[in-house]
Specification:
This protein is of the alpha/beta class and about 220 residues long. It has one domain (about 5-175): HUPs (Rossmann fold, 3-Layer(aba) Sandwich), CATH 3.40.50.620. It is built from ten helices and seven strands. The protein has helices at about 15-30, 50-60, 85-95, 105-110, 120-125, 140-145, 155-160, 180-185, 195-200, 205-215, and strands at about 5-10, 30-35, 70, 100-105, 125-130, 150, 165-170. The protein has a seven-stranded parallel β-sheet with strand order 3-2-1-4-5-7-6, with helices on both faces. Strand 6 (about 150), helix 7 and strand 7 form a beta-alpha-beta unit. Helix 8 crosses helix 10. The N and C termini lie far apart (about 50 Å). Bound molecules: adenosine-5'-triphosphate (ATP). Adenosine-5'-triphosphate (ATP) binds near residues 104, 107 and 174.
Length: about 220
Amino acid sequence: MRPLAIFGGTFDPVHIGHLRAAWEASEALGADVYLVPAKVPPHRPQPVASAEQRAAMLQVALAGQQRLRLDLRELHREGPSYTFDTLTSLRTEIGNSRPLVLLIGADAFAGLSSWHRWQALFDLAHMCVLTRPAQVPAMPEALAAEVAPRLVEHVDRLRSEPAGRVLNMVVTSLGISATRIRNLLAAGAEPRWLVPDALLADPVLLEPYRRAAGA
Ligand code: ATP
């Protein structure tokens, strides 16, 4: 059955690293992918751009293709953006048999055992850990023990079961981070070819980061 995958983050701002990783996972899994911006990320400092500004950048970045879509459910919910709540609401929408996949970068996955109700996430979805070539995520003991019996080698296992498996997927390594892009903009430089051209072409979308420099 065609899986539904989600890729969450602050997207402050969205960049080519996010988009390429989500695209490759979507193609490999044969999945629709929802990009889900967090309103109030529980695990990190608050974003520079507002939730509305980050959603607007994603909307512009995703124009012209159907594979990756914007999902605003975390922005419409009060309080911290827990992945547990997001997966629960998606599971309710799609029913119990369609595969649901959480796409997650290896760095974020290594911290999973500090997330709200982290063990219950495996009851709701598969985890597809996006790794760079030769990168083996270091995991705390509790997470490694949870993951070991769930590990699968092939995407077919994620397509034939609704939840509960962990797959490491190697995606093109693009050493791009939103932090670097914010720093470039704050220094008056242009992050051309690190973000979609459409973001640079728009006169206001990247302004929050340029303004942050003068704050
Ligand atoms: P920041 O620099 O502000 O921490 P970021 O670029 O890491 O931001 P996030 O919004 O925090 O972006 O990340 C959302 C998701 O995208 C996470 O799962 C993260 O691991 C993943 N990710 C971030 N950058 C890349 C990249 N260059 N390639 C693949 N995945 C990435």
